């Protein structure tokens, strides 16, 4: 237990969740009328988390005269790190009572949360927060940028918006021809097809076993984790697209969601793309089929929010548009030093943390 003036930091447990929900709701304007979303997050990500017992608690909090005035929720994720299975403590949903801000309590929470596991992860895009992480010996992952990419997949929505329904459909089809020609050079020479599994079974475990040694650091992608994350305890609706070859072998898969913007504009957000790092054929085939499927369904834009050196090379080589970020997506704290190669090749996926986990339309 750490004391700083009249503030005391301590571990939080399941019994503290209702108080955490109230604190988060009261101090985030966008959530003040949506306590059910916060409660759902704690229930799905922590209470029903099969790996949570690996951590000493469900987060850290700060009390002032016995009242909880700051909290940081922490959920467990199974992790593959330098050839071994471990658990990472991932921090999310940090809240400080607005009446106590500016007193260094967030830094106190960061310091306390780094004691819960051998490896702690978090995300931030704030310059002030990043300085605090650096001061507390957290390491930045992925340099100063997220390596996100995007591309236009369809003009139909924009054409309808500008020219009306009937003329817009025709104009959109003409404009889409250029996009189809762009993708044609990536068309796979062998036959692949996509499936939309409703559960992950043995073939997903076999793919994980085949691929994992190519990754110095990544989230575990066993069927147990994928089923829990996608189907048993989701916090937002995600879609799974599995790539199989002509023999039916699972070669790769993608996890994504679609979101909507005003003016009939829809975006597909790629949150995960997993396969053996050396299997560029499968990566290109998966991208080709996904992009064509998204175009056929009228999705206007694609955001590729998954990053690793081998993927960055492919995205850039395919001519996708690089999207500058606002800062490091990840910070980690390890009680034993990690080698430079592991840090440089850290596989970053939209499944790792909960920076997107709100319900999407």
Question: Short description, anyone?
Answer:
This protein is an alpha+beta fold. The chain folds into two domains: about 1-140, Aminopeptidase, CATH 3.40.630.30; about 150-325, Aminopeptidase. The protein has helices at about 15-25, 35-45, 105-115, 125-135, 155-165, 165-185, 200-210, 225-230, 280-295, 310-315, 340-345, and strands at about 1-5, 5-10, 60-65, 65-80, 85-95, 120, 140, 150, 190-195, 215-220, 240-245, 250-260, 265-275, 300-305, 320-325, 330-335.
- Tally of strands: 16
Helix tally equals: 11
Strand % is 25-35%
CATH topology of the largest domain: Aminopeptidase
What would CATH call the architecture of the largest domain?
A: 3-Layer(aba) Sandwich
Helical amount:
25-40%
What is the gyration radius calculated from CA atoms?
22 Å
CATH class of the largest domain: Alpha Beta
Mean pLDDT: 88
Mind telling me the CATH superfamily name of the largest domain? Gcn5-related N-acetyltransferase (GNAT)
Shape assignment? globular
Work out the count of structural domains: 2
SSE topology string: EEHHEEEHEHEEHHEHEHEEEHEHEEH
Distance between the termini: 42 Å
Low-pLDDT segments, ≥5 res: none
Name a few traits of the molecule:
34% helix, Aminopeptidase, 16 strands, globular, 361 residues, alpha+beta, 9-stranded mixed β-sheet, 11 helices, 2 domains
Question: Can you tell me about this structure?
Answer:
With 361 residues, the chain is of the alpha+beta class. It folds into two domains: 2-141, Aminopeptidase (3-Layer(aba) Sandwich), CATH 3.40.630; 148-324, Aminopeptidase. The protein has eleven helices and 16 strands. It has helices at 17-27, 35-47, 105-113, 127-135, 156-163, 165-184, 202-211, 223-232, 280-296, 309-317, 340-344, and strands at residues 2-4, 7-12, 59-64, 67-81, 84-96, 119-122, 139-141, 148-152, 192-195, 217-219, 239-245, 250-261, 265-274, 301-304, 321-323, 330-334. Strands 1, 2, 3, 4, 5, 6, 7, 10 and 16 form a nine-stranded mixed sheet that branches. Strands 9-11-12-13-14-8-15 form a seven-stranded mixed sheet, sandwiched between helices. The two termini are 42 Å apart.
